[in-house]
Each structure stands twice: as C-alpha cells, then as structure tokens.
Amino acid sequence: MGKQPFHKTVHPAIWDLHCDLKRGTITRREFLRYASLLGMSLGAATLAACGSPEQPTIWSGSSAKTDSLKRGGTLKIAMPLEIAIDHPARTASVVQANLIRQVSETLTAISPDNVTRPNLLERWEPSEDLKTWTLYLRPGIKFNNGKLLTADDLLFSIGQWLDPEIGSSMKSLLSYLNGRDDVEKIDDLTVRLHLHKPSISVPYDLAASPAVILPHTFEGDFLANPVGTGAFTLEEYNEGETARFRRRSDYWRLGQDSQPLPYLDELVFLSLDRDTAAINAMLTGEVDTVDVSSLALWQALKDEAGFDIYPISTAAAFILRMRADVPPWDDVRVRNALKLCQDRQKMLQMARLGAGDLSIDAHVAPAHPAFCEKPIPEYDPERARRLLAEAGYPNGLQATLTTVSGLEGPDIAQILKETAAPGGFDLNLELVPATVYLERWTTLPLGITSWGHRPLDTMVLRLGYSADSASTPALWNETHWVDSEFNQLLEQAEATLDIPARRQIMCRLEDIMQERGSIGNSYWLRGWKIVRSGFNNIQAHPDGGDHVYEVWYQGM
C-alpha cells in the first residue's frame, strides 16, 4: 500500500510497525502504543490500524452525554496522609502523587490501557535514531497564579529532576541525559532533548509522578507555594488530617459542555487507614472512595448496594527485596534459597484471595508491553536447604524481615515465615509504619516493599535495578544489586523499536533476575476502584491514581 495514511513527517519506524500489524506479528494495541510513543497522534494511529481484527481500548476521556452532565459537588477520598510532601520531584508514594497531581501536571499521561498521550505537551517528535526528542508545549496554558506556561518552566523543572541535591528518582529514569546542558530551548514553547543514548521510553518517563512541571519561580516547598497547571487549587492542608482542593475556573481543558473543567467543585482527602477506618467511612457515607482499594475494602463492599466497582490489572507488586551487597544476601545461593521458599499459589490465595497473577522473580509484568512469559517456579524448600548448606549455613539462617504494617505486607511476611521454615530460614518479622519504612527502605537487609504500577518494563528496571557506568546503583535500587550484563541488555532494550526483538531481550533480562537477581515476587496485583454510586467518568487506573478532572456527580 502507499503512504497516504501517514503524515510526511511521521517517524520511519511507524512504517515497520504498520507492516508488522498487517502481518499479524504485533497486536493492534501494540501498534497504537508504539506509534503514539513515536509521536503519532492516537487518532491518526487508530486510522492507520483500521482493518486489523483487534479492537483498541483508548482512553477517550469523558463518556457522558452533554444533556445528562451536571456540574458541582464534592468527592471525598480516604487515604493515609502521614507521608510528608515537600518537593514534588521527590514524590515516592501514591499518597503524595494523588495530592500533587490535583494541582500540578506532567507533560504526558498514560491512559488506563498503557497508551501514552500528550498532556501539557501538544506533541513530540523523535529523531530517527531516537537520540533527539523535540517537545512542543500547548500554547495558552496558565498556572493557577495566572502566569503562562513556557519553555523556561520546562527547563527549570527538568533541571530540578536532574539535580543530585534534590534527590529525585527522575535522575535515574532520565539516565540518557547527562545533565541540564542536554536540554535545549528552541523557543518559548519548544524544548529539545539531546540524549547520549537512544531510548524509546521518553514519553513514558515524562508521565512519571515526580515529573510534574513547576513554575521557574518554585523555591522548593510545594505546600508553602502550591502553584501548578492542574484542575484544582490547594485550599487547605492539615498534615495527618485533611487536604481540601477547589476547582479552578480557568483550567485549560474544556468539558463536553465547552466550559472549563473540572466538573466537581471540591475534593476533600481525609486521613484514614485503608482497612477498618476506610471501610466504616465508606459505609457511613463519610467518604466516597479510597485512594487505593485494599483487599479488605473489596471484601467488605463487593456485595453492598450503592457502590460501583471498577477492576484493573496492574504491574504493582509486593517485592521481597534482599540487599545484594551485604551478608548473607550478597551470596546468590542464599538469595535463591529464599526465592525457592515462596509458595506463590498459597501466597496469592491467602494474602489476596486469588486476585492477582502469579509471577517469577523478575520485575516485569503481563501488563508490560514486552513481557516474556516464563514458567512459574515451584515451591522447593528441600532445594533451598541444600543451597543454604552450600553457602555455609548447614543449620539454617536467622534473619529479620521488615515491612509496612498495612495492606498485604504483614500477611505476605507471615506466610513467607511459615513456608521458609522448612527451607532452613528462621524469619523474625518487624512491622513498621510507612513513614519509618520509607526512611529505611534502601538500607534494610531484608524487606518487603510495595512497588506501584509502572507502565513500561524498562522504566521500572531502570528505576529499581540499574547502575551507572561506575557501578553506582540508581537512587531507587533498594537492593544495591549491580549486574553488568543486565545493564547492557537494559540499554539495548531501551533502544530497540522492533517489538519481537525487544521481547527477546526482555526474556533474557527476566532470566537474569530469576537466576541471580535480588528480589522475590509471588504475584502481581489485580486491583479495584470502588466508588459510591452517582459519580460518573471514574477511571480505574493501574497506578492507583485519582485522575478526577472529568468526574461529575449525578447524585443517587
């Protein structure tokens, strides 16, 4: 066929993707995902994919009919507010992200089906070699202080991400930038990134929760000066108690009634734990939803009238992590012995009532685009005991396992304690508040960390398991595991556009993590968004995000 469906400036690799789609070697969703990454609009990509058998799922925004849409109302959300907020670039939790995103926005956004779309950017254009990315801001967007968003704000924000003194995980994520000098201002609405190595993940990375765009006048304390381009303004914040947001009248997005979004007048976040307190608050009407719906919440409300439940598959997990640079976990035999002590099916059934997908010991999920399916390892305590003996622990090994005293961490820890005993491990459990765990999570010898959803496989591997050329672990590499082959293959995967070839690289990366990596992972979470009936345009997002600027309240 000719080239009529595509604009003349389309990235040449989209032609290869289109041929793969027609041959049936990639799915329609894979075509949409990668075509959008390469700068093709979702509308054009959908037209180009016409005729393929698989129907796409695209986040098209509001589905409400204009004649039924209502404005006004308050959405009340329960979440534990004990985690402090200061600099948005240091965002490391769902709680922090869900508060900040109401006021500040990212350049791109990931839809619930893992497709990247423009947000503050109007579009982006990668070079053929994927080493130069040109970013075009939407014109006319204003911060809530009335100042126009310009390239200067973008340059400032990227500089904050890359500043080692700020301590942002974005520095690891954007490892293809050597520093602020790799970011060029073209004009007031255009910025160009000059990568020192090719990467397909740039649009995904720009949607990460710490990547919100700040005004160039920002001085480091978000709560003291909550200026952003988002749909709401922060009106009140009482640490550990409440946060209250009011709608902006001059937000840049328009609703289906051609008036500025958001539809709701107010958001109120109340500090409640996600189990007993949140359940009672939902049943009594004190709150309308919970930021992250726990298993206990789902059990309590699934048969109750007056609630809508939206399921979602995710790449979120409770990761069993072992410090690979301190004894005894610096011995791969000890690490593999503990991995063998995971009875994954028992863990999934007892900790989450089967609501998840079994996993190997690699941080690559079925929700990730280049996921490579592998056999699930068997529970084998006898082999675990032999490995411990080979490592010099013939009488077994005692260790302290630390996790957060909430969600599923304690259940997983207790089950592992029981299933690891026949393998020679005597695990002492230490349960701590989330604030304490976050202070210690990169220094703990042995722990269970709740990792949220990341939309791209290479994204989470870069954040959690990579190291630089000097073998210094990335900021969020909590296990301090460094593997040169892994890092080399990860760079290849980030530069590989061909989807089957990328998946082959991912197969080997998964094998390395299973064979000599520093984590165990029994299952991936399937989640739920549970909301009081009467709220419309609710999106169950795999990252647990409260994306509510299009939500409207109809009432009961």
Polypeptide structure, described:
Mean pLDDT is 90; it is low at 1-8 and 52-65. The strands form five sheets. Strands 12, 13, 14, 15, 16, 17 and 18 form a seven-stranded mixed beta sheet that branches. Strands 8-9-10-1-11 form a five-stranded mixed beta sheet, with helices on one face. Among the domains are: 1-58, no CATH class; 314-525, Dipeptide-binding Protein, domain 3 (Roll), CATH 3.10.105.10. It is built from 17 helices and 20 strands. Helix 8 (276-284) runs parallel beside helix 9 (295-301) and helix 15 (457-465) packs antiparallel against helix 16. The protein is α+β, with helices and mostly antiparallel strands. The N and C termini lie far apart (53 Å). It has helices at residues 13-23, 28-37, 42-48, 94-100, 151-162, 170-173, 202-205, 276-284, 295-301, 332-340, 344-352, 381-390, 409-420, 434-440, 457-465, 484-494, 499-516, and strands spanning 74-79, 108-110, 116-118, 121-126, 132-137, 183-187, 190-194, 232-238, 242-247, 266-271, 289-290, 307-322, 356-358, 397-404, 425-432, 446-451, 519-520, 523-532, 535-536, 552-553. It is globular.
